[in-house]
Specification:
The complex is a heterodimer of chains A (405) and B (346).
Chain A lengths: L3 H37 L4 E11 L10 H11 L7 H8 L6 H11 L5 E8 L2 H7 L15 H12 L3 E5 L2 H4 L12 H32 L4 H13 L4 H15 L7 H25 L3 H9 L4 H29 L3 H5 L4 E2 L14 H9 L5 H31 L4
Antiparallel strand pairs in A: 1-2, 1-3
Helix pairs in contact in A: 1-16, 3-6, 8-11, 8-13, 8-15, 10-11, 11-13, 12-13, 13-16, 15-16
Chain B lengths: L1 H16 L8 E4 L4 H13 L8 E3 L3 H8 L10 E4 L5 H9 L5 E16 L6 E2 L1 H8 L2 E3 L7 E3 L5 H4 L10 E3 L5 H15 L3 H9 L1 H9 L7 E3 L4 H10 L4 E5 H6 L4 E3 L1 E2 L6 H6 L5 E9 L9 H9 L1 H4 L15 H13 L7
Parallel strand pairs in B: 1-2, 1-3, 5-12, 8-9, 8-10
Antiparallel strand pairs in B: 3-13, 4-10, 4-11, 4-13, 6-7
Helix pairs in contact in B: 5-7, 7-9, 8-9, 13-15
The chains are: A mainly alpha (405), B alpha/beta (346).
Chain lengths: 405, 346
């Protein structure tokens, strides 16, 4: 036997190992979060340029081309832009989206005159420079050339460039102009998929769990099923994607890229997770309660629906939410069924083509435009927010519904 | 149980209703053409023409053509993008599935650059240097026809006046069209500058292809996945490393990386457009003519894409890094788009 001090020392060492392990894990998490937040936070702001408008009330607002009209007013602010290159440089500072904002402004003020400075969306290149993502090198900065820099300096000296809240990020769907791109379409697509995945997998999984746990007799066959369900939970998600492709697209001929198919595929994936969690929850209901119910004359069905399931519900719901949270972050199965796509319109129903949040992150991470880097991180922040929300719900439900025996 | 029956009913109902035609165009194909096609699709959807924006999936050129040639009808894509020309094998596959009427559209060029960090040395390479540095087997000794495993570890071993820097090149994996094009244009091009290998091409094409297009796997060439942004991050972290990617990524990251001079020409917009910069390829898309008039907007999309406004010498795709076609060639394809002229491979 060792002496006391040696045993104490080894005890201390053991504690230290544990602490180090926790610290390393926390360290990685902090680095990850810091990385995402420090790049992503700037995406919630967006650069705007003030353009001086002078549009009289009696101006024919119906028959104008919003782009040329806006450009005209912008050019008027800088009479020094004379050559074609200079004019192009100046106009390139405004985003393509500015013209849509302009026509909206016109529509809101049909009968009134529009005077004074109005803010319009700036191009992503300017945005990157203002936010300091792209550093100035002499008279250029990344894609911004000398001519553009000349006008940027002028606008800045007159305080006509400003960072405002980014209203596109959460209100519009994907776009190839980073300054106009948003995640609304992806969020709606994710919600549809998750809803369908829940509606399909929850009842099937709970019924399967009840049957396996309470009704089926224990024999070799039920053991086989149990082992297979456990194996199924460990199958890589891409395999479920292939299964979804074969069943829902090729056999049922459901539309490609639709959240309906995405939801069904994710349902296949979450099914085993929910079955396992539900069985564990059902198993942990004290047999004394069920025996009491049967002793008082309740049938098996009455016992299951009246006592077992309600008492097992906190565990079942926790398992379901964890399964759904896993599904919400899944990209691979969606790749196979065509949800990794460029979709400009926000989906109106589960049958419209759509992307999902993790897919949008993947697509943006792969885009050449610099401004998508910060938007990728911003989308990750939103996805993390969703996951935290789901997990908090799971904890809340467990605490709220849990009964102590 | 109630849930289950509702869901099953919906499933069947949706399955049946899907027999109807779509109202938006489906496009698949090359990840290189994707950044351009998506811009056009977005503009097409916003334009006041009554059509919805097309849905675009990035499946790679080969994967896109496979889906495209799988058959006719609303379940199959109407258009596929490709960063290389359709192969005769693929035309045959299409024909087997009843698709004989395809229109080919060439939209422009994309340069492939060999870039490194802005604070690193600017290399002036030849295609032969690239071949010697990156191929699996290279000629060794003075005797013709003798090759051995590539053992060059630094650039000055490849050519004595290049700097003494380890060869570290990040590039796309074999599934990528960029890799195919790089191997075909840069490596084979450099390979052919060695006289006996050029002769080998006539004698034994298979051996020549193997010798000239196989990329080394012993370390200096690092497969970096399809994500070019990742390559750029790695280049800025190690200023001695080089990366292979499309011109549009160089254009977007001018403040971080610079392109190496190849065969005496720097990869600039003008040099690629004029053809002076040799490592560039053509970009295409293919349209299923049977879907014109069935899926709304197919031909309109085609003409929209081929308009001067999009791919002309002043078009909006140039901002995204597309290198435009020469005037005459553009006019030919614009006419083809109008007449839906049928693809004939020669």
């Amino acid at each position: 036997m060792n002496n006391i001090s040696a045993r104490n020392k080894s005890e201390k060492r053991f504690q230290m190992y544990g602490k180090t392990a926790v610290l390393i894990a926390i360290g990685f998490l902090v680095i990850l979060l810091f990385n995402i937040f420090s790049t992503g936070i700037s995406a919630f702001k967006q650069t705007y340029i003030a353009v001086n408008l002078e549009i009289p009330a009696d101006f024919d607002k119906k028959n104008i081309n919003p782009r040329t009209e806006l450009n005209k007013h912008f050019l008027k602010m800088f009479p020094e832009a004379t050559t074609r290159t200079e004019r192009r440089a100046l106009l390139s500072l405004l985003s393509k989206g500015a013209r849509y904002e302009f026509s909206e402004l016109i529509n809101q003020n049909k009968e009134r005159s529009i005077q004074g400075y109005h803010w319009f969306l700036a191009s992503a290149d300017l945005d990157m420079y203002i936010k300091g993502t792209v550093k100035r090198q002499g008279d250029t900065a990344g894609r911004i050339d000398e001519n553009q820099m000349f006008f940027i300096d002028k606008l800045l000296s007159k305080n006509l460039i400003e960072l405002q809240a980014n209203k596109y990020l959460l209100s519009s769907a994907d776009s190839r102009e980073p300054e106009m791109a948003g995640i609304r379409g992806a969020i709606i697509g994710s919600l549809y998929s998750i809803l369908i995945a829940f509606l399909v997998s929850f009842p099937i999984a709970v019924m399967a769990a009840v049957y396996l746990e309470k009704i089926a007799s224990k024999n070799k066959f039920s053991d086989l099923i149990e082992t297979n369900i456990n194996n199924l939970a460990a199958v890589p998600s891409i395999v479920f994607g292939l299964l979804g492709l074969a069943i829902f697209l090729n056999f049922f001929e459901l539309p490609r890229s639709a959240p309906l198919v995405g939801g069904l595929t994710l349902a296949l994936m979450t099914l085993p997770t929910i079955v396992i969690a539900s069985r564990a929850a059902i198993k942990s209901v004290p047999p004394s309660i069920e025996e009491a119910a049967i002793g008082l004359g309740a049938s098996k069905v009455q016992t299951i629906f009246g006592f077992t399931l309600p008492l097992a519900m906190p565990g079942i719901l926790t398992g379901t939410i964890i399964g759904i949270a896993q599904a919400i972050g899944e990209t691979a199965p969606l790749l196979m069924i065509g949800m990794v796509a460029f979709v400009v319109d926000v989906p109106g129903s589960p049958l419209d083509a759509s992307t999902a949040l993790p897919v949008q992150i993947y697509l943006w991470a792969d885009s050449p435009e610099r401004a998508f880097t910060e938007r990728t991180s911003a989308a990750i922040m939103v996805l993390l927010g969703f996951l935290i929300l789901l997990n908090l719900t799971a904890i809340y439900l467990r605490k709220k519904l849990e009964k102590k025996w | 149980m109630k849930y289950l029956s509702i869901v099953l009913t919906l499933l069947v109902a949706f399955g049946l209703s899907n027999a109807d035609a779509r109202d938006s165009i489906k496009i698949v194909g090359s990840s290189t053409v994707y950044p351009f096609a998506t811009v056009v699709a977005e503009e097409f959807g916003r334009a006041d023409n009554g059509f919805k924006a097309p849905i675009i999936e990035s499946t790679g050129s080969g994967g896109g053509l496979k889906l495209f040639c799988a058959g006719k009808g609303p379940g199959t894509p109407d258009v596929t993008n490709a960063s290389r020309r359709i192969k005769s094998k693929e035309v045959k596959l299409c024909a087997k599935n009843g698709i004989t009427d395809i229109t080919e559209m060439k939209i422009g060029f994309d340069g492939i650059v060999v870039a490194n960090a802005k604070n690193g040395a600017t290399l002036s390479l030849t295609r032969k240097d690239l071949y010697l540095a990156l191929a699996a087997e290279v000629p060794c000794g003075i005797q013709d026809g003798v090759t051995c495993t590539n053992e060059y570890k630094t650039w000055n071993q490849v050519r004595s006046d290049l700097p003494n820097m380890p060869i570290v090149v990040y590039g796309p994996p074999p599934t990528s069209g960029t890799r195919d094009a790089f191997a075909e244009i840069a490596l084979s091009g450099g390979c052919n500058e060695i006289p006996w290998i050029k002769k080998l091409k006539k004698k034994d094409k298979k051996a020549w292809k193997k010798l000239c297009r196989t990329v080394r796997e012993d370390g200096p060439y690092i497969e970096a996945g399809e994500n070019d942004n990742l390559i750029i991050q790695k280049l800025t972290a190690n200023k001695d490393s080089f990366g292979i990617f499309g011109f549009s990524f160089l254009d977007q990251n001018k403040d971080k990386v610079k392109g190496s001079v190849i065969d005496g020409v720097a990869p600039t917009f003008d040099a690629i457009a004029s053809g002076d910069y040799k490592v560039s390829r053509s970009l295409y898309f293919y349209v299923k003519n049977d879907h014109v008039g069935v899926i709304p907007g197919v031909q309109e999309y085609m003409e929209f894409f081929m308009s001067d406004d999009a791919i002309g010498s002043d078009g909006y795709l140039l901002d995204k890094g597309l290198i435009p076609l020469p005037e005459s060639s553009r006019a030919k394809y614009q006419a083809d788009a109008k007449s839906l002229s049928k693809l004939v491979l020669n």
